[in-house]
Amino acid sequence: MEFKLEAHRIVSISLGKIYNSRVQRGGIKLHKNLLVSLVLRSARQVYLSDPCPGLYLAGPAGSPAMPPPPPQQQQPGEPAAGPPAGWGEPPPPPPPARAAWPEPEPQPERPAAPVTGAGDAPRGGEVEAAEAAWRRVEGAREAAEGGAAGPAGGSDGFPEGPRGTRRQCGCPPGAEDRPGAPGACPRLACCCAPRPAEDEPPAPPAVGPRKRGAAGVGGGPAGGPASGSSPLKKPRRNSEEQPGGAAAAAEEEMETGNVANLISIFGSSFSGLLRKSPGGGREEAEGEESGAEAAEPGQICCDKPVLRDMNPWSTAIVAF
Amino acid sequence: MPYSMPSGKENVQRVWKGDRKKWLEPTPQGTADIISTVEFNHSGELLATGDKGGRVVIFQQEQENKIQSHSRGEYNVYSTFQSHEPEFDYLKSLEIEEKINKIRWLPQKNAAQFLLSTNDKTIKLWKISERDKRPEGYNLKEEDGRYRDPTTVTTLRVPVFRPMDLMVEASPRRIFANAHTYHINSISINSDYETYLSADDLRINLWHLEITDRSFNIVDIKPANMEELTEVITAAEFHPNSCNTFVYSSSKGTIRLCDMRASALCDRHSKLFEEPEDPSNRSFFSEIISSISDVKFSHSGRYMMTRDYLSVKIWDLNMENRPVETYQVHEYLRSKLCSLYENDCIFDKFECCWNGSDSVVMTGSYNNFFRMFDRNTKRDITLEASRENNKPRTVLKPRKVCASGKRKKDEISVDSLDFNKKILHTAWHPKENIIAVATTNNLYIFQDKVN
């Protein structure tokens, strides 16, 4: 559990660094951003590989769509930032379908992200997808947990505690049918007007050919990252979790709000990033050619199709 | 003269003394005088520093005082000039920083001195020359330059040179521009003294010192699809003796040795130096801390040294699979990597250097500490460059960082280290035990105390 929070924290810090690098004097520093993206990827791996159910990143019951990024951060010529999907979206009001989902525990938690194993990509309606996901999560939870307060089982041994809220993403069915199609999932619709956007869907640890040292990174982080995180941080985190969901929720809200802003800037200006690359037009052409794989932000919140597309998206962060 | 740290008795460690040279008052912005590079010339008589504001300041060693023969000359400011100015790339809407990334001296061939200085995009060859006489007695001009009324010229005389106060002039002789898309991180002069290389994140170019309008690309690791980028070049250096050999280090912790005789484009390395990662140390930040920030050949050319975030490694060029020596610079930081990532310290690029005889290596750390490792005795020492040692001839006291547990007297705990005070740049005199250590704004020059 702490690993997951730590991973999430590292993700948001990393995104902040990447964002800040765009406005730094002297232009984007390729080396630093490459390293940050590697950390981002590692943290994301940990974050997603954890089968710990019921992890939530609480946010306010706010507007369904992300506020557009501040205008001064948009470069001329970039596509207008649509509401992003992906990490840390503030959750919209719970949709009616949720009420139908059984809640095993008297906790203010919402359905967790679908645990995608070898993955049947949920197709069809959003509700079916959500329900199937919820069932999987339920199963995992029952298997893993001994009780409301007990620590989550599984190899990670993450302790339970008040968690943030994860929202289901509502991509229109069309997007799910054609996972590779760019723009099949219009950002606006995907970004959760009807449904909350899903926080990072869990991905199998080894994702994509671009994984470097997959055995090390993918397999490692589940147990490994603690060694990387400062031991001083843990007590602080624990004490913050104690006060209960509200406090943690408030803290997470700020974090996720921040992350969401960053995602929106990244997602929308992905090709803008490439255009900014010192390599110039060549990268942009490549970016657009691989646009079929390069995830539109909207596609991120889909389940299986997005999992595949998330990898190029994160590698795209690498490719300034 | 060869020097080695005495071995054996524990109280026979060399002592270092020196003083602080504050050579520029902080500019109003406060950051322009951050030292960004330090380099002795081949004789050690001159010491060049570059800063974030694009300035170069050269110090010169005083001639040795014959009476006080045990004390070597002090370094005083010799020349100051603005090497690079901020520029703007209008095509890409990018500002180009004027910060001097590297300075490299050319060996002296005549009375003048030459050095290469580079910022992110442009390398310049500077000539530093002395003027200590000037012509006087022109027929048609007054001494202040005004032209005389020709009708007042009644006699002719031959102008003569008269001594004047020493003036040191720096003039740019060559400007090597527009060859790098990414940020230049290294320059290195070949042992043929005619060519040099410049390296950016993805490419290395070979130049001739006389030719500015073209360069040869000898390494290109840019992938066809930038999304597949996994590593960048972090440093490059020519071999000190073999003019066909150079190495470059990467952000993945590998070093590649290339032979320019093998092919025009040295994308295929001749040797690959890489140490397998210790899986027990795996963390989120493993990749960052394995990125090599500096690579330096030994003077002999047999070894090379690499610096990554936590350690210094000595490699034998004949053995690729692991370094022959590894020295931990500040292993106590391994548990703090997350905090160091947050405050960006984990991205600090520490440099390292050899002493003249290749027996001692030195590198910087935080809290204005710097470390020396004696390769023969395996002893190491931590010293501090700080104002407390400002008084000249103050002997430096060894420092110790308490990693955990009970802190002894005079030890400093890890949590009280000041991570804003970092020593990234150090240099060792090529022949003597004189070291230059750059803190953020100040330059310290230390000499060993010869008993």
Automatic annotation (TrEMBL), chain A:
Stretches with biased composition (Gly residues): 147-156, 215-226
Gene Ontology MF: a single term: identical protein binding
Species this chain originates from: Canis lupus dingo
UniProt region (Disordered), positions on chain: 59-253, 273-298
GO CC list: cytoplasm; nucleolus; nucleoplasm; protein phosphatase type 2A complex
Name of the protein in question: Immediate early response 5
InterPro entries named in the record: IER
Biased composition (Low complexity): 74-88
Biased composition (Basic and acidic residues): 133-144
Single GO BP term: regulation of cell population proliferation
From TrEMBL, chain B:
Swiss-Prot/TrEMBL GO biological process terms: regulation of chromosome segregation; response to morphine
GO molecular function annotations of the record: enzyme-substrate adaptor activity; protein phosphatase regulator activity
Gene (UniProt): PPP2R2A
Name of the protein this chain belongs to: Serine/threonine-protein phosphatase 2A 55 kDa regulatory subunit B
UniProt cross-references to InterPro entries, sorted A to Z: PP2A_PR55 (IPR000009), PP2A_PR55_CS (IPR018067), WD40/YVTN_repeat-like_dom_sf (IPR015943), WD40_repeat_dom_sf (IPR036322), WD40_rpt (IPR001680)
Keyword Metal-binding: no
Superkingdom, natural source: Eukaryota
Family: Belongs to the phosphatase 2A regulatory subunit B family.
